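Box 3.1 A note on notation
Throughout this textbook, protein chains are presented in two layers. The first layer is the amino acid sequence; the second is a token string describing backbone geometry. Keep the layers aligned when reading.
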Amino acid sequence: MEDLHSNGASLAILDMNEELGSSIISNLGAERIKFFTTDVTDTDNIKKSVAGAANWMKETGVVLGGVICCAGVGYPSLVKPASFFCLDLVGKLAHLLTHSYM
């Protein structure tokens, strides 16, 4: 995140750890960062956070340049599709974000 930010990127951070989010904003500044408390195991929560990020993009004129997924802490293991939201949803959201606000 620091490298992206130092190179001019705006960051919408979706994570459960509010303390870490606050720390990142304190260290890098709030001008180009927006934090959304997000539980990636809850599809409705993801939708709410992505909608919030989309609204932030619309309000600020920020253009989606990419999506970096690095959720979770733990040991490498097989991800079972039934346990998590459908990856097709991510594709649809990315399409919506990149085509609705240009």
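The longest helix spans residues 43-60. The chain has a mean pLDDT of 79.
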